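Lab notebook: predicted structure, single chain.

Context: the supervisor wants predicted structures on file for every construct in the current expression panel, including those that have not yet been purified. This is the next one on the list. No modifications to the sequence; it matches the entry in the shared construct table.
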Amino acid sequence: MRGGYRVLKRVDLNDVLTLLERLERRGYKAYREKLSRLEFTVPCGIARFTRVQGDPYAPPSVLEVRGRLHLKGLASRYPVATADYAYRFLRSRLARLSRKRGSGHSGYLGLPKPSNAMIRRSGFEVHQDYFIARFWFGLPARGRRILGYEAARMLEDSIDAVCSTIRVLEKGNSSLEEHVKVYAVQEYLRSLLPRHRLVAFIGNGSILPRRCGWCEEPLANAIPFESPSSMRIELETPWGTYEGMGIPRGFTVITGHPFHGKTTLLEAIAAGVYNHVKGDGRETVVSLRSAYWIEAEDGRPVHCRDVSPLITRLPGNNDTTCFTTSDASGATSMAASIIEAYEAGAELILIDEDRAATNLLYIDPRVERLAGAPPITPLASYSHCLSALGVSTMLVTGALGALIEEAENLIVMKDFKPAHAEVRESRLPRNCVKPRRRPVSTRPWRSKPRPPRLVGKDGYELNLESNRILVEDGQYTTIALLLAKPWRGTLSEIAKRVDELMEKGFEAITPNPPPSLAEVRGLDFVYALMRLPPGYVTTS
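Prediction complete. Output recorded below exactly as produced.
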């Protein structure tokens, strides 16, 4: 060991192939004894096994290849899109090479299935002038006897798959160019939102419905989106002009009858924090990157949040300026989530009435006459205060007509298209109470990802199902690694630090990253952090 790192012996790929052949019929532990000490030159860089499995039934080993990369054109300007293309290309090559070659995971070569979102993944990273590829490598054996010749063939073929991927990136082709262009258009459209005072843009012709509730594929024969003239806007990009519906800042209400596309529109806007691959149907649907999905979460913990702007008093004279509980109700959980969103730096809150605590959205005057003055400032009123604080709200409702009266932007959905839309005069906020920003300090919490949950070693299950913006299993793995570190600061400071770590790469999060990590926004990490069990979060 030198400086905390293992000193590796550097050899040539042919030396490793010969070594593997000589291990034929040896005991399985010989893999770890020999391979964990080596790094080896390959045609496109340097390779090494960052993890060597202990037996064929254990999770597969990890092979990492890194080397110089010379990109040109759009590919050099958009490394996330280039890496996303390379990840999908390499995954398809490895899938063709992967096959059963003995016991357990023997012969497996692969990467986790990606979503339609173009995001950073540890399986393939592109930095300024170099790349890092990581993938699962199931070292083959029959029983626990090494199949050395099969291992050598796997290594040679998989290295060729990586190097052929690099050749495609450096030479370029029409497929790569189109992939990066689709990403670039979405990045440019999103960059125009603040200039036009918009929180989201839905391009005409977009296909918003999905094939099923848990599917990413667009619904076949779905009705293409078309903007009403009242909200129609044209956004100019270097690749052409895109026409669609621009949703302004402020309090937006989406209404209409059941099964006419209200929630579908909201979910598409939530997905718009990411760029999507060609064929997804949402390639021109973009929203502010800082959008935040909120639902009622009965039973969630709350760690000293100032919910007094929304809830002025609680039974037992509980302090609502430092509201703490291990078992929040629907209304108090939503109130805490809204305040956390503001503290973390969210600029757009998304709420679906079907998943919300309606008593936080609106107070019926008839109930008020019977029960007296309510201890709640409903979101219908406080949304204008949030707007003054720089946080827009978008809410789906089919039953609460009073929300329509408060809306600054109204969208009526019919047959999955906006049948009516209007932008009204902005409401002046009244009697606004600004929430206090309270710094937090957290203890490391170690867990295993079981999407959509993280299961802690203490037995606590952190359920993140309510965060509809998480789209890949690898994001839960990344969150689990981040929660295993201590954190200190305001929620916006913590969110910003996580975003900075994502920019640096996955080695900034953990040494020898596995191929199964995916990018998370700082907001999504704060979402998880504030739902840690009692005792792990303290507030100053």
